[in-house]
Amino acid sequence: MKRSISTLPVVIIFALALILQGCGGGTGSPPATTAAQAEQTQAQTQAQTQAQTQQTQATTQQAQAQTQQTQAQTQQTQAQTEQTQAQTEEAPSEEKVPITWMMYLSGTINLSGNLKIYDHVGDYAGVIIEPMPVPQDVYNEKLLLAINSGDMPDIMTGGGAAAIQSAGAQGLFVPFSDYLDEMPHLSYWLDRYSDDINKLRSTDGKMYYFPDFRDHVRTNAGVMLRKDLLLKGGLDPDDIETLDDLYHAYEILKEQNPEYPVMGARS
């Protein structure tokens, strides 16, 4: 009996130790369930962190794209503004500028009247032409007087070439030869008749008056009749052979156009 009693505490203590170890007491390894939970928590944390990082990167990229889009829109707006300003600066003024034009007065044409050519040129150039007709027999005299007085019209027709070249070299006229790159048609004719260009130049080598180029024989003499009116009056122009025939033709023209002269002259 004594031996049995002496071993009982050892058995009890061993059993208590086993119980405590099973309950997590002591210093042994943690249960497998606890380790798996820790790994799962760590994986979830890493996944959440990675997702937040990716979301932050996506937000940053979106902000950068919006910034680039805003910059592109700003540049486009600036380009449109510059284009509008350029168009505004280049656009001709709606208000026409009056200019005076001194010209030959010859023949039966009333140059002081409201001719359609004035309207056409005025609309094209944005000006109002104010004609200054001067009789041809005193034109050169009036031209020199205007040059010497300094009170000149804006445009002058013809006159003495020497006087115009001399006045141009003194700075009284605009040398159109400085703007040939804007006048392709005139440049074509100047190139075509290049042998005669030097005749147009002043002492400073520039040109101050527009030449009168013609690629056909010029004539301002002879009799010209309206064939359609003669035929309408019953006369074939080929039948006009004598002065009497010509006189009869004028009679027919007068009958067809009683309000207008049958003859005119201009140089």
Give a structural overview.
The chain is mainly alpha-helical and about 270 residues long. About 50% of the residues lie in helices and about 5% in strands. It has a three-stranded parallel sheet. Residues about 1-5 and about 25-30 have low confidence and may be disordered.
Unreliable stretches (pLDDT < 50, length at least 5) are: 1-5, 24-28
Structural class, please? mainly alpha
Specify the biggest β-sheet. 3 strands, parallel
Distance between the termini: 168 Å
Read across the widest sheet, the strand sequence of neighbours is: 2-1-3
Q: Helical residue percent?
A: 40-55%
List keywords for this structure.
single chain, 267 residues, mainly alpha, 3-stranded parallel beta sheet, 8 helices, 3 strands, disordered N terminus
Topology:
Blueprint: H1 2-22, H2 32-90, E1 97-105, H3 116-125, E2 127-135, H4 139-149, E3 155-156, H5 161-169, H6 184-192, H7 227-232, H8 243-256
Parallel strand pairs: 1-2, 1-3
